[in-house]
Amino acid sequence: MLQMRNTPSIIEFTKILSSIVKTKNNYSTVISLSQQLEFHGIRSDIFTISILINSYCHLGKITYAFSLLGKILKMGYQPDVITLTTLIKGLCLNNEVQKALHFHDDVIAKGFQLNDVSYGTLINGLCKMGQTTAALQLLRRLEGGSVKPNLVIYSTIIDSLCKDKLVDDAFEIFSEMVIKGIPPNVITYSALIYGLCIVSQLKKAVVLLNEMVLKNINPDVYTFTILIDAFCKEGKMKEAKSMLAVMMKQGTKPNVVTYNTLMDGYCLHNEVKKVKNIFNTTVQSGMMPDVKSYSIMINGFCKSKMVDEAINLFEEMHLKNMFPDTVTYNTLIFGLCKSGRISNAWKLVNEMSDRGQQPDVITYNSFLHTLCINHHLDKAIALAKKIQDQDIQHDLYTYNMLIDGLCKGGRLKDAQHVFKELFIKGYNLSVVTYTTMIGGFCKEGMFEEALALLSKMEDKGCIPDAVTFEIIICALFESGENDKAVKLLREMIARGLL
After folding, report:
1. Among 88-92, 183-187, 316-320, 426-430, where is mean pLDDT lowest?
2. How many domains does the chain have?
3. DSSP helix/strand/coil, 378
């Protein structure tokens, strides 16, 4: 078209750019082609620029997108609601929700109009950033204005409130919506069911499911999977299987996520045979198990000390051109370490790195745990230093493990050194950290140090639990320090820990 003697109008070129965006979401290509138009002196119109704004927003190049808005205004055009909404969406996609709010205020102040889609986009952005209160405030502003909130807006806020465990507030918004004549859909009900599940109100969640059915709103696979997952996490596997049966009876076909949820549930209870049966059912149902399916199955085998079966499954993933993720690697590495196959585990660490997946603190904690329980304490100290030197994001669990290993291995001075380092680095030490160190002192008969640390622990605002007291009391009784033990025992009773 560019090489034709009579160059087509910008309208024809815009049609092509529009098609590319719709069919392939190939935003970089759109920008490249538009640059060719500019090079050939073909002037863009507002529609072409709007497509470009959308492309830049999706690529995270917000500055370029806003410079094009300036170009629209300089050309004497007025940006339409679609262009303005695209810019709001772009800011929200790039986690710049506050800028999106300021842009909204600026647009309204200049007399431009936004619609329910614009506000839906803005409220969705606020909710995704955890700013549910701000989203609610915007909802209240809408209710008093010309643009009325729709089902999408209400459902988005209900979903966000439920994820924040503010289920009662979510039901209030739900009631308001219904009173205003906006009928809920499967998305609205699913959000409420999820909210009830995460606050352990499963009976109410099932009642709500039945209410959906009575109102001829068919629960989808996502709705059923929420409930199945909740039953699994509560250890109610019979109820989870019953819900699966109800789902299939109503003609809703389970997907790989549903089966993964059930597998995870059985895996938590070490019922590896049932995990394997569901894994096979997934395949027989014509579904391809995903990386998570394999990770759960590998975890099940490792927990049941069936490490060879886990390795076979891991190799099967490679044969099927399925790339294990960090969770898969960490699961198998933990299983190998636990079974004493350290060299095989290190090979997997190297394989991870070769595949561009960086080992994380969970990876190294598996090795650290094995080294500590087998009293390879110098290697454990060296590994902990390596984690620190490589700037791997580590947690308190790593240090707790190392302190525990050093205390049990008779290396109290080294444990004290690690403990003091944590103080210097400003860590907010947990009950476990203090209790582990107190246990180390007690093991060596250093009761004054143990009691001093107990006192220091409380001064730092960390409240000792029953385990902390029991460790000191038992050690005192064993050493014949009965008076001190009885005094602590009485304190323990006074605190309601016994």
Report:
1. 426-430
2. 1
3. helix
Burial environment of residue 469 by CB neighbours within 10 A (0 to 12, 13 to 18, 19 or more): buried
* pLDDT over 80 (residue 358): yes
- SS3 for 233-300 is HCCCHHHHHHHHHHHHHCCCCCCHHHHHHHHHHHHHCCCHHHHHHHHHHHHHCCCCCCHHHHHHHHHH
Angle (CA) 323 329 330, round 5° = 150
49: phi then psi, degrees, rounded to nearest 5: -65, -35
Q: Find the angle CA(282)-CA(288)-CA(293) to the nearest 5 degrees.
A: 65
Provide the mean pLDDT of the chain.
91
Residue 98: partners with Cβ closer than 8 Å, 6 or more residues away: none
Give the up-direction half-sphere exposure of residue 68: CA atoms within 13 A in the CB hemisphere: 25
Retrieve residue 334's tokens.
């933990």
Range of the domain at 449: 428-498
Lookup result for tokens 């395949």: 283
Asked if residue 461 is part of any domain, the answer here is: yes
Please indicate, yes or no, if residue 482 is contained in any of the structural domains: yes
* Percentage, residues of the chain above pLDDT 70: 99
Angle between helix 221-233 and 202-214 (nearest 10): 160
Residue 349's H or E segment, with its range, is helix 342-354
**DSSP state, 77?**
-
Q: Residue 438: inside a domain, yes or no?
A: yes
How far apart CA 161 and CA 146 sit, in angstroms, is 25
Note the helical H segments in 75-185: 81-93, 97-109, 116-128, 132-143, 151-163, 167-179
**Which tokens is 218 given?**
């068919």
Q: Is the pLDDT of residue 273 over 70?
A: yes
Contact (CB, 8 A) for 209 and 219 = yes
Query: Does residue 201 contact residue 165 with C-beta atoms inside 8 Å?
Result: no
Distance between CA atoms of 177 and 155, rounded to whole angstroms? 9
Task: Give me the numbers of helices (H) and strands (E) for the chain, helices first please.
Answer: 28, 0
Residue 247 has pLDDT above 80, yes or no: yes
Cα–Cα dist 456/463, whole Å? 10
What token pair was written down for 355?
């595949």
pLDDT of residue 38: 83
Three-point CA angle 88, 73, 84, nearest 5°:
15
Q: What one-letter code names the amino acid at 339? A: S
Mean pLDDT of 304-331: 93
Contact 60, 94 (CB under 8 A): yes
Tell me the pTM: 0.81
Q: Is residue 439 part of a domain?
A: yes
Burial 354-386 (b: 16+ CB within 10 A, else e): eeebebbebbbbbbbbbbbbeebbebbbebbee
Q: What is the pLDDT at residue 394?
A: 67
